[in-house]
Amino acid sequence: MIIVAITGPTPEDARRQLRLSSRYAQMVEFRLDRIADSPVGDLIRGCRKPWIATCRPVREGGTYAGDERGRLDRLCDAAKAGAAFVDIELDAIRDFRALLTSHHVRTRLIVSRHCFDQQPPDIPRTYRALRAVRADVVKLSFMADDAWQLSLVRMFLQLARKDKQHAIALAMGTAGEASRVLYKMLGGWATYAAPEEGEPSAPGQVPARILHTIYHAHERTRRTKVFGLVGNPVGQSKGVYIHNPLYRSAGFDGVYVRFPVVDTARFMKDVSPMVSGCSVTLPHKQEMVRYCASCSPEAAAIGAVNTLVHRRTGWHGANTDAKGALVAIERRMKVAGKKLVIVGAGGAARAIAAEAKHRGASVVIVNRSDTHARTLAGELGVGWAPLLELHDLNPEILINATPVGMWPDIQNTPVDAIPPTVRLVFDAIYNPSMTRFLTMGRDRGLVVITGVEMYAQQAVEQIRLLTGIRVSAAQVRRRFEIASAALAPGTGKVRT
Ligand code: NAP
Fold first, then answer.
1. Which domains does the chain have, with CATH numbers?
2. Which of 55, 188, 361, 447 allows an S-S link to 32, with CB 3.0 to 4.6 Å?
3. Model pTM?
């Protein structure tokens, strides 16, 4: 079930959060440590869901800094007021049980442990300690710094399953986001979600509305196929808002999550067995090739993958960036025989240059660093030139494959002026879709191709490879627009 954590900070805020978020949750949690002092009876008025009372002390990551006896009394009052569960920390459960007994109060208990250490906790030991106190539910929350730690969550929940013990295990922080979405598939009893118009109660908590309406986390089963975006950072990615709704409208039982990965080897060893396929982004596109048992011809030529599909023979790598960019360009202008100049010598430039050469363009790379341009050109067998010589190259197609002009630096351009021979400009940047570079081209009446078009075309192919679903570029663009409108520009924060 999804439990929405009501965090206040004022009682009015708490009541509003309850009103707005209840529909996305099967249970609610009142974080009494965060909601300004108010009788529990007032807070729960109007609450139609079963509720949990929690008053987390500072030592376990909460905000309650008062005396322990006052805290336990408050939780005891909540139990008297009808809490379905009280969440009590492992180090306080003995005292709390004694208090309940002395008041002749019975309630169900979630015994919890919250670890903020740099090192992840010893899972078997922590599980045994929580299990030993025989509470109704055991709960572990720990701070994660790499997506491979999802395997620790799974280990905890597997131990609990063997004992038929209700258990919650969540990895905190953005690196742990997948544990909050995949909880049910991993065997977790519940996940916690942030309220509407309120702060999350723990780092990395996903808003209840997103967990419910984008991820459909509570409906996932062991049969659901897991996909994700592997990269670092991945917080700004709109992929989850595009893949998940498209999977759903096609009736495909799959979920797409973000995997912020630092240690690719550990991720491939510990987490990839749970995953059917991945999108791959910076900085892992080249490195991931070494985990592939096979690669598409484009990926092999480029030496980088942006898509990994699990096949019986192992991981298969593909690069849909390359085709995506060239399909977007060739819908307006064929590249064969044309002089095509790419500004930039990174991953996007590599993919576009290889595919443009394959389609018969005369490709030249220019770049801030000549060394990078020369190296890439040498690897792909295309030309290169110093950026200062751009105008002498007489390009017909000019492509920006640098992040220059991306939000928030939207006034910047990769070139001061567009050479007079250029007929088509294309920018790989998709945030914003109309960059200053493209505006310069549009003002000259040139053909303009946005990075959104490239994104849409590559996503069509990527979704087909990952899931077998056929979607149109128009469907992807529509989802992209919805996601852009719903996210505060460039912050990755959900606004509506
Ligand atoms: P990357 O591998 O980091 O390469 C960046 C390139 O840009 C390098 O050649 C770098 O030059 C150059 N560069 C960076 N900052 C610069 C600056 N301030 N001035 C001049 N040159 C600069 O990045 P990437 O993966 O190729 O991505 C490039 C852009 O393409 C990004 O905006 C990305 O979002 C976009 N992209 C879009 C799609 C899509 O579907 N639309 C797909 C992939 C990428 P040096 O070699 O001198 O460092």
1. 2-222 (3.20.20.70), 229-319+463-486 (3.40.50.10860), 322-449 (3.40.50.720)
2. 55
3. 0.93
